[in-house]
Amino acid sequence: MIIRMAKVEIVGPKQDLLSALDLLHHRGIFQPDPQLLERIELTDDHMQALVLNEPELRERSFFQNLYERIAALLQLFPETVDCLSPLQPLPVMDLLDELVDQHLASARELLRLLNECQQELEDLQRDLIFWQALEPLLIDLPNDSNLELLGITIRDGQQLQALEELLQKRTQGRCHISSTKTTEGSLIGLIATDREVAESLHQALTDERVPESPLPEELAKLPLAQRITALRERLQQQSANGHKLEAQIVELSRRWQPTYRRALNWLEERLTLYRATATAYTTRLCFVIQGWMEHAEVLSLHSDLKLAFAGRVVLEQQAILEEDLDQVPVMLRNPGYFAPFEILSRLLPLPTYSSYDPTPLIGIFFPLFFGMILGDIGYGAILLLLAIFLAQHFPPQRLPSDIGKVLGVAALYTLLFGLLYGELFGNLGAVWLGLHPLWFDRSKDILPMTVFALTVGVVHILLGISLGALSALRRHQPKQALLKLAMLISVLLLVLVVVGWFYPQSWLKIGPLLIGVGILMPVLIAAEGLLAPLELLKTMGNIISYVRIMAIGFSSVLLAVVANKLGGMTGDIMVGILVAGILHAFNLLLGVFAPTVHSLRLHYVEFFSKFLDLGGRRFEPWQKHLP
Amino acid sequence: MDKALIAFAAALAIGLPAIATAWAQSRIGAAGAGTLAERPELTGIIIILVAIPETMVILGFVVAAMILLML
Q1: A348 with B70: Cβ contact below 8 A
Q2: How far is B33 from chain A (nearest CA, A)?
C-alpha cells in the first residue's frame, strides 16, 4: 500500500540550522523539498534561499580541501583497515591538516620507490632466466676480453637460421651464434663477436627487429663468469629492499588509517550538511525547511526536536494542498503475503501519491490468473516443490526467495484449478487414475471456458474502472469520476447486450439496453470528447483480450495430451517415459513463462490502464550512509 | 471436401495472425533490444511490450480451435 505522508515545516533560529540538519540526517526519515518553499519565496519578501556567510564558506572550503587530501591519502594505503579510531576529529582537525600533507608526501615517495624496485626486480628476474639458460654456452666460450656478447630472443628455428646467415654475411664470418631454450620454453640466442664489428651487428639486429636483452651497465662490465652471480646478488638485494619499503607503507597505514578514515567520515557528514543547507530558506533571524516524511513518524520527530533544542526548533505538520499532490513522494510498503509481489509491481514506474499501490491487486489476481491458465495438478506439484526450495534455500527478502513465494502461491492456484479441470499431466490422471473434472474439461469445453475467461475479464475491467472513479474522487476531480462511472455503466450495458444476443433471456431486452448506451454516449462525449466511443470500444477489446486465459491454457492441455500420446506410441515403457518426460518438461517451461507474461500483461495493459496513474516520485529521505 | 475446407479455414485463421504477430514482435523486439542497451531497468516493460502483439495469434488460435472443434 502507499504509505500516508505528511508535509512538514521545520522552523528555528539560524544558528541552530546545522545542528537541526544533523539531527534530521541522523534520523533518516525526512526528505527536504525546497520546491515547496519556492512558492512562498515569490510572495514573501523576507524569505530567501539560504546563502552561507563568509566564515561558513571558509570553513566549508577548508573541510572540502581536507576531505580531498585525506581521500587521496587513503587511496594510497595498501589495505583497508575496518576499525575506526575513537578520536573525535573536530578538535584535531588543524593538526590533521598539517599531518596529512606530510603523510601524503611520505606515502607517495614510498610508493614511487617501491614501484621502481618492483620494476627492477621484474627486469632482473627476466635477465636471470635469460642468462641462466645461456650459462652452458658461456662455459664453452674463450675468456677473451676482446669478445662482445649479445643476448637475443628468437621467434623460431627458421628465424635463427636466417639470422645466422645474415650475421655471418655482415661480419664476414666473425661471429658465432649459439641457441638454447629457457625454462619458460622460449628460444634465446647468444652471439659472440669481435668488438670491432659489434656496432654493425647491433644495427643488423635492429634492422631485423630481433630483441636484445641488455644487462644493466654495471653488470655488463663484469667478466662473464661473474655476471650470473652478480645478477643473483642484485636480485636478493632488491627483493629485500622491496620488502622493507612494503613494510614501511603497511606500518604507515596501520598507524594512521583508522584516524584518517574516522576523519573522512566526519568530513563527509559535515559536507553533506553544508550541501543540505541549500534546501533551507531563511528570514533575518530564522531558518525554514519544508519537506516530506511518513505520517506515522511526525510525532516522534517532533519530540526529538523539542528535546534536542529545548523548543527553539519546532516542527509543524501542514495540510497537503491539491497542487502538492503531484509532488508528494511515494513509499510503498506491503504486509506479509503481499510483500513478495513487489517484485512484479517494481517492473512498473511508481504510482502517484493519489493513485493506488498495484502490489495488493497483483497479489490477489496474478496467482489466480496463473492458476486458471496452467491448471494442472502435476505441474502445480512440481512448481510447489520448486517454490519451497527457492523460499527455504535463499535468505528472506532476496529476489530468489520472493520469486519462490510468488511461485508458491501461483502453484497452489494451479493445483486448485487442476483439480477443477481434472488434469494431471494433461489427460494422464484421467487415463491412469480415473480423475474427472469437477468443473470443465478444458480440452473439450471450449465455449464454456471462453465464456468463463471473458467473465473474468468483465469483472476485472469493471473493478479497474470503479477504482479509477474512486481515484478521481480522491483527487477531487468529480468530472473525471463521473466519466468513469458513465463508462462503467456503458460497458456493463454493452456486456448485457452481448449476453442477451448469444443467450436470449426473457428479462434481458437488447433494445432498452442499447437505448441506455445511447443516452450515456453524449455524457461520455461531453466529458472526454469525440474519442469517447473509441475508448468504449477499446474497453470492450480489453475484455476480449482475457480470452487468452482460455487459449493459452487450452494449448498447454493439448501439448500435455500430445506428450502422453507420443510417449504411449513408442511401445517401450522406459523410452515412453523419457519422451513424455521431455515433452512435459518443455510444456512446464512454457507453462511457467507464458502464464506469467500474459497474466502480467492483463494487469499492466488491460487492468491498470483503467485507474493507475504512474510517474510518482520515490521517497528518498536523508540518511546516514556511513558508520 | 468439407473437411479440407474446414482445415484450410482453421489454418488461415491461425497462420495469418501468426505471421502478423511475428512481424510485429520482430519490430518491437529489435526496438526493445536497443532500448535495453541504454536502459536495462526497462526489462519488465519490454517483455510486456513484446507480448502485446501475441493477442492476434491467441485470438487466431481460439478461432481456429472453434472452427475445428465446433463445425
Answers
A1: no
A2: 17
> Which residue segments constitute the domains of chain B, with CATH numbers given?
2-70 (1.20.20.10)
For residue B70, the chain A residues in CB contact (below 8 A) are: 446-447
CATH architecture of A1-49+280-336: 2-Layer Sandwich (3.30)
Q: What is the pTM of this model?
A: 0.70
Band (A533; pLDDT cuts 50, 70, 90): confident
Chain A residue nearest residue B47, CA to CA? A597
Statement: residue A137 has pLDDT above 70: no
Rounded to whole angstroms, the Cα distance separating A192 from A375 reads 86
* Strand, coil or helix: A179: strand
ipTM score here? 0.81
- A597 interfaces chain B, CB cutoff of 8 Å: yes
Amino acid at A327: Q
Q: What is the mean pLDDT of residues A102-107?
A: 92
What is the CATH class of A51-130+236-278? mainly alpha
CB contact, 8 Å: A590 with chain B?
no
Element (H, E) at A281: strand A281-282
Q: Is the dihedral of CA B66, B69, B70, B71 positive or negative?
A: positive
- Hey, where are the domains in chain A? 1-49+280-336, 51-130+236-278, 144-222, 356-610
Architecture in CATH of A144-222: 2-Layer Sandwich (3.30)
Contact B55 A552 (CB under 8 A): no
- Asked if the C-beta of A614 comes within 8 angstroms of chain B's C-beta atoms, the answer is no
Contact A470, A480 (CB under 8 A): no
* Cβ distance of B61 and A551 shorter than 8 Å: yes
DSSP A440: -
Task: Report the chain A residue with the minimal C-alpha distance to residue B40.
Answer: A347
Distance to chain B for A547, nearest Cα, Å: 8
pLDDT in tens, A192-242: 777 777 777 777 778 777 777 666 666 666 666 677 788 888 888 889 999
